[in-house]
């Protein structure tokens, strides 16, 4: 009897030690607010809308120690619609992220599944949309995916450890199609370097036939554009001085034969190519640990090449946001955005203002958006 007790106690000690090396965390964000969009098809729109500053989500993040500095990792992240209780991300159970992999303290992390691309990982955190304010400050039609309109399915992703301020990584999303290896595949590379007050980042992404193969890297229900080819590249920097931080971002997006946008529908005149050059400047000022204010301005120059000629539309976007933390996990915020489309007419939806995250396209070349919100994290 004594031997059984000792054996049982030993087992419990070993089991407790094993469990102590593993962890699973539940986390999430709930963002709710009241918003106004001017000139939605000629009329003003008032809405109770969720997930504007940060998409509503809950997730499970896990890690298990494998010994020798290695561990197994996974993440399952669900997106949902707060006001209806339905699944987000086109009805996917874990549409925001779903991956499993291995990580090393020295060699980095290798993961497999539905994941963010290198632009989201390295450039987006320095933008006003991906780093602070969410949908309302997006570059037109989220053409560079800075607010993660899409994730990459069937993807293999590597992220390095922090090497004296340098972090880099890459992703490859497979088409999974027999006889169509490059039909709806994606790949991206990126890096960021931080030293004292300065952070710089760069990234490149290419997608062949985005959204045109249902089993491929980008599903057609959550890609920003459907096209023959999409390429995005850019760089960003952030400088912190006392209580202020300043950001400057440039991104370039090139689309070959785009046929539609998830935000505006089909092109009635299909261009041979469409290009966006986005230049964003932003400034965040921290008045107190709880109170901050953000200003941003983005100029986007477009090039629309079609059979009837070349048009040069351009977009001016400006925004302001004030954010106040009631506690470490709950904040209230107010933001406003204005967009104006100018330059040459294309005869398509590109001619009308359309603030992403608002109620829909304007009937003219101007649109205004305002929102008051409450965000809670857990």
From TrEMBL:
Protein source organism: Paraburkholderia dioscoreae
Keyword Metal-binding: no
Primary localization class, coarse: membrane
Assembly, per entry: Homotrimer.
Gene3D superfamilies named in the record: Porin (2.40.160.10)
Protein name (Swiss-Prot/TrEMBL): Porin Gram-negative type
Pfam families assigned: Porin_4
Membrane topology note: Multi-pass membrane protein
PANTHER family (alphabetical): MAJOR OUTER MEMBRANE PROTEIN P.IA, PROTEIN YDDL-RELATED
One GO cellular component, as annotated: cell outer membrane
Subcellular location: Cell outer membrane
Keywords, ordered alphabetically: Cell outer membrane, Ion transport, Membrane, Porin, Signal, Transmembrane, Transmembrane beta strand, Transport
Keyword Repeat: no
GO MF term set: porin activity
SUPFAM superfamilies, A to Z: Porins (SSF56935)
Signal peptide: 1-20
Porin domain mapped to chain residues: 9-340
GO biological process terms, semicolon-separated: monoatomic ion transport
